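REQUEST ID: PR-0412
SUBMITTED BY: lab tech R.K.
PRIORITY: routine
TASK: structure prediction, single protein chain
INPUT:
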Amino acid sequence: MFMSSHDFDFFVIGGGSGGVRAARMAAGFGARVAVAEERYFGGTCVNVGCIPKKLFVYASRFSEDREVAAGYGWTSGEASFDWPTLVRNKDTEIQRLNGIYERLLKSAGCEVFAARATLIDPHTVEVAGRRITATHILVATGGWPLVPQIPGHEHILTSNEMFHLEQLPKRMVVVGGGYIAVEFAGILQGLGCAVTQLYRGDLFLRGFDTETRSFLADQMRHKGIDLRFNSDVTRIDRTASGLSLQLKDGSTLEADGVLYATGRTPMTANLGLEACGVALDAAGAIKVDAHYRTNVPSIYAVGDVTNRVNLTPVALAEGMALARRLFAARDTQVDYDYIPTAIFSQPPIGTVGYSEEDARARFGEIEVYTSSFTPLRYTISPVKEKAFMKLIVEQGTRRVVGLHMCGEDAGEIAQGFAVAMRAGATKEIFDTTIGIHPSAAEEFVTMREPTRR
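STATUS: complete
OUTPUT:
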């Protein structure tokens, strides 16, 4: 269909979410497509990210669920948790998904290389000892955990290793303030670890709504996690009893394991990008325009390797938009406004749109509606957990421009409201929508009086 003197119309480096979606769609449009993946199909999300992490979240919730059940009349014998069983069953599921991703590519007609590919020039890649040419080349290699080179850094675990530990350490220190750190702190606490989380800033989850993340911090402390802000590690030493962490204030902390979740770096090293003249930013991310094209017209990039909106569904959307533009003559663009996001903390956060701080800067006059309550599930439970909900309304248009929740099922609830917000729903539309009772979600359509303007 596409006349070209090259071996392929489209060569994709990276078999993660964005690369696979772009490859499959391009093949569906009639392009000759090849994909190279050196590690595992499905990328970060399937192998060491969203999927195994969510499985671990489920596992960690059962200890608290047993306590909640006692308030409902359920009793059972002494419980025990077996870490190797969880890891083994998780591995089985991930291997199944790896196979699905590879089969999807092959069934779409893509040629698949289970090998590393590097760029030789703007139209040539080297893979599995071969030099292959392509009209268009997509780099979708994702990111990798960043480990600071402090004394004792060899003792540090990253999220990658956490999914494959032979044994679960009893005393864990989690360093970092992003969503990965927050999620693993909850996972480890739920699985029975004594958890201390350190973050060098005043409050974790920078960039999210301040009131919402402050509420989460209170709930995490209530669950027994030792949160320490404005704190950082200067060195780590192996001792007879485990690990000794020297903190910047001069104090020490003992642990059996140290997990660092202090950021991820784009995987652009040794790909041949510099030799081709592809521009990178200071963090090593590939610079792209609105159409995911680099400064080299035949080379493109999507997903985490561009270090913009590092979310799996965003990489999927970018991959689809690129394939449509290159091979279906459809110039669709990804809309980055009102992207729903969930943090699978405990309790989880669901958010759509602007934080209060960003909304005030963007829109000026706003109304803020908030509500905090004990969900029905916990009212007759020995476990007490609260939920927090927040709406932000632009006063001039009455449009709901921010929705934030910290509480059970927050991600599931935010997804539905995201549709309404992308359609421009106003506060009056929220108010005239009948709620589902009894549910936590109904709170979003029953907030009548603003907390502040």
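NOTES: The mean pLDDT is 96.
REVIEWED BY: pending
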